[in-house]
């Protein structure tokens, strides 16, 4: 970065001074005191923006307001405070990222306000734990800084992600006590058009009253796309597929009526229930297929997707809609379509009773999908066993919600080549799932041990079953000292959040 760019950036940042100050007074009141602080910038040499920070330091007004913004968060936990230097650096880095992405000062301010509010929320949700943490305080401090750093990267706010999380939480409610891989469908996808086919096909099948099986659809229900886009079996799980009809090969040597008859005959032989076409199907053929109880759909517009979802008992919700989950009732099937356009869609099918859920996993590489599916399968199995054992005392915060939080975390942003989950979702998830009151308030009883056992088993099964934090024999026997529990569980929380796994879900 040249000096001229640095100078321009400084001037742009100075333009937000009054807006930031207005934000501070609006959120925290006008009685906020502004103090002068000094920063040792030598301690943040690892940041690319270090020389810019030194330049900005000359503008005392900006530094004062920025530091006051951090101070106003009151990020003090127990006997120690989070590093103001670290937090200031995070905020500055966030500002530079937003500016490089083309956000104007007002947009940056809005995101900073969200950052301030949610950061404060994090600390409030974790501060009650500290009297019992003892030597594990450093774990919570590292966790807090890690989470705030992660949030600084989440600059794209997506309400649809929040809707998905709320839907999953609603579905995995206490009333949905018993579930396993038999009623949780894990569908992976690489190509959007392939996924659309599966999406609509699943809706059509459900409309007919068929239920998705564990490994395949009922053999009597198959789908044909008249021109390609049939997913291969090694990419998708939970569906059967057949080779596409080769219309070009059929046309040679046949009249129009013969062609229609031949296609209908082949559809019957293949036991096809759904046919998609791309403007290359005649009215005569469409009518012939319909008469033979075959659903025929043109490939594919958003309006048709909406119609199909409504016909199947579902509803379309775009990202700006306010979804009332109490009125919606139990969530039966959740299916997501991201058309990578201006308005992504969330298709939710409401049912009177929960039977199964579809979780969509996307990755650019097949090997990553396999890895994620393996982890998901393990966690679902563990969670099912824990719930069935009834060892968890159900309160406002459910161990199931912890599970949803962990499966939705993003760990390997660069490896998967996808954008991180948005900050609003991340922080709301943290605020809800980091709440261990139900364990701490119950003391060191069986429920508390069960939580600890859950995390230990999860870590052991996902990775090699090595004892990184506790004595595994004492865990198995159930003889756990209170000090061991306190230190171990928060170590495992930090370990899981920062080092375990995540999936990308639309």
TrEMBL record:
Membrane-crossing segments per the record: 82-103
One GO MF term: ATP-dependent protein folding chaperone
Keywords, alphabetical: ATP-binding, Chaperone, Membrane, Nucleomorph, Nucleotide-binding, Transmembrane, Transmembrane helix
Listed SUPFAM superfamilies: GroEL apical domain-like (SSF52029), GroEL equatorial domain-like (SSF48592)
Pfam families according to UniProt: Cpn60_TCP1 (PF00118)
Gene3D superfamilies listed in its UniProt record: GroEL
Family matches, as InterPro entries: Chaperone_TCP-1 (IPR017998), Cpn60/GroEL/TCP-1 (IPR002423), GroEL-like_apical_dom_sf (IPR027409), GROEL-like_equatorial_sf (IPR027413)
PANTHER family reported for this sequence: CHAPERONIN
Family listed: Belongs to the TCP-1 chaperonin family.
Protein name: T-complex protein epsilon-SU
Lineage: Eukaryota, Sar, Rhizaria, Cercozoa, Chlorarachniophyceae
């Amino acid at each position: 970065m040249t000096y001229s760019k640095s100078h321009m950036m400084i001037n742009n940042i100075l333009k937000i001074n009054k807006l930031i100050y207005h934000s501070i007074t609006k959120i925290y009141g006008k009685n906020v005191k502004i103090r002068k602080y000094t920063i040792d910038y030598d301690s943040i040499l690892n940041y690319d923006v270090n020389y810019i920070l030194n330049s900005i330091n000359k503008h005392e007004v900006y530094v004062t307001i920025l530091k006051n913004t951090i101070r106003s968060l009151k990020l003090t936990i127990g006997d120690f405070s989070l590093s103001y230097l670290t937090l200031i650096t995070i905020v500055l880095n966030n500002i530079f990222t937003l500016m490089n992405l083309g956000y104007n000062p007002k947009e940056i301010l809005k995101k900073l306000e969200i950052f301030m509010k949610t950061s404060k929320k994090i600390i409030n949700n974790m501060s009650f734990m500290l009297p019992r943490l003892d030597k594990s305080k450093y774990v919570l401090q590292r966790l807090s800084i890690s989470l705030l750093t992660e949030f600084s990267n989440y600059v794209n706010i997506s309400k649809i992600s929040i809707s998905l999380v709320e839907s999953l939480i609603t579905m995995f409610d206490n009333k949905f006590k018993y579930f396993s891989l038999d009623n949780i469908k894990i569908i992976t996808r690489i190509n959007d058009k392939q996924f659309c086919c599966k999406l609509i096909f699943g809706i059509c099948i459900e409309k007919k009253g068929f239920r998705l099986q564990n490994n395949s659809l009922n053999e009597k229900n198959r789908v044909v796309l008249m021109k390609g886009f049939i997913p291969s079996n090694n990419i998708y799980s939970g569906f059967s597929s057949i080779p596409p009809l080769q219309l070009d090969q059929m046309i040679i040597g046949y009249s129009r009526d013969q062609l229609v008859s031949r296609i209908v005959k082949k559809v019957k032989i293949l036991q096809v229930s759904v046919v998609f076409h791309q403007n290359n199907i005649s009215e005569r053929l469409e009518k012939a297929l319909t008469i033979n109880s075959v659903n025929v759909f043109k490939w594919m517009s958003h309006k048709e997707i909406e119609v199909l979802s409504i016909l199947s008992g579902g509803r379309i919700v775009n990202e700006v809609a306010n979804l009332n989950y109490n009125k919606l009732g139990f969530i039966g099937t959740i299916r997501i379509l991201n058309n990578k356009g201006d308005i992504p869609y969330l298709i939710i099918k409401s049912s009177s009773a929960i039977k199964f859920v579809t979780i969509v996993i996307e990755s650019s590489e097949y090997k990553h999908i396999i890895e994620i599916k393996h982890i998901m399968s393990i966690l679902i199995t563990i969670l099912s066993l824990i719930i069935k054992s009834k060892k968890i005392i159900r309160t406002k915060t459910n161990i199931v919600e912890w599970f949803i939080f962990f499966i939705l975390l993003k760990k390997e942003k660069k490896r998967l080549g996808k954008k991180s989950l948005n900050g609003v979702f991340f922080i709301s998830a943290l605020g809800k799932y980091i709440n261990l009151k139900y364990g701490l308030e119950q003391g060191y009883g069986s429920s508390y041990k069960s939580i600890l056992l859950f995390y230990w088993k999860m870590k052991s099964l996902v990775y090699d079953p090595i004892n990184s934090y506790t004595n595994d024999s004492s865990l198995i026997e159930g003889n756990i000292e209170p000090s061991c529990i306190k230190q171990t569980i928060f170590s495992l929380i930090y370990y899981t959040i920062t080092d375990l796994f995540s999936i990308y879900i639309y």
